[in-house]
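Subject: for your reference before the review

Hello V.,

The reviewers asked for a structural picture of the protein, and I figured it would be easier to keep everything in one thread rather than splitting it across files. Below is the amino acid sequence we used in the manuscript, unchanged from the supplementary table.
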Amino acid sequence: MSFHEPNDMYRSSNQNEVFTHKVNWPPYAFSFTNIQGSFLLGSMLEQANNYIQYLSFSNETNTIQLKSSANHIYPPTKIMWSPPSLQEQIFATSSDILRLWKCEDGQISLRTQLNPHHENKEYNGPLTSFDWSLRDPTTLGTSSIDKTCTIWDINKEAIKKQILAHNSEVNDIAFSHDSNIFVSASTDCSVRKFDLRSLEQCSIIYENPRQSAVVRVCWNKCDPNYLAILNMDSSSVIILDIRNQLYPINEIKGHTGGINSMCWAPNSYSICTAGDDCQVIIKDTIKPMQGQKDHPLVYNASEKVLAVAWSNFDEIGMVLTDSLQYIKL
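And here is what came back from the structure prediction:
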């Protein structure tokens, strides 16, 4: 079964086959690479010794195949391939520190380890997330439970800026289309916007009225004005227009349980959400505001979905409790 409209009882529309890859440990962190049909997957074991894998879909056998794997210290909270403009086969992971990996002929190996607390022992919390600047791929930002955000120059393997960003744990970070602008989401219930050229001040662009943690923030890939915000244990996603921060412009609903993950389409205003209700839902965020009817697409998984990603090749990957699922749209 694949994506379908909710009222399509017979699932009669175009069916895209779902390919499943089982793993021997609980998976969590997931990313597409810049090669069609290739993925990165990380484990979530409650121990120091964890794993990352480089996987590839075979069109000949219609199976997902393991190409390479490596040990990883602590579960990676995020794994992400470098932007295409970097023109290097590298990716990053976050856990206790930031690690950069290289991938040559499908084989992954550790390139370097970057410790954001090396220069400042006052802050020493593990990393919750990170993001790569698409405009300037030498710039990468990390977020930490010690309330800080750290901006890196990965060419120099050095810290560019480190700031005390929030009053509580920083759960996520995301760069704008402008490499100087980034936002962060925190357990202090806010999303804040920073400018690397003037870090003495920041703008609080969203505060959760329900006073629960903001866990994820994600910038639309084709329009720098739209931001998706996910609050802890929420069954909906908030859409914010940063030109008018007074009120959210839309609230994306449809789940009956908490949402675990969200991602924008690579070249539209559609957003994909996945949650504890075993559903993956694709909705247009703009059409309802323009008076147009939206026709959401729904995929019903066999178990709760922990993470979802949408590739530049219009592929969707989903992480379940013991497997990875892959769909070509």
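For the response letter, the relevant points are probably these. Residues 9-13 have pLDDT under 50 and may be disordered. The domain at 26-261 is CATH 2.130.10.10 (Methylamine Dehydrogenase; Chain H).

Happy to draft the paragraph if you're swamped.

O.
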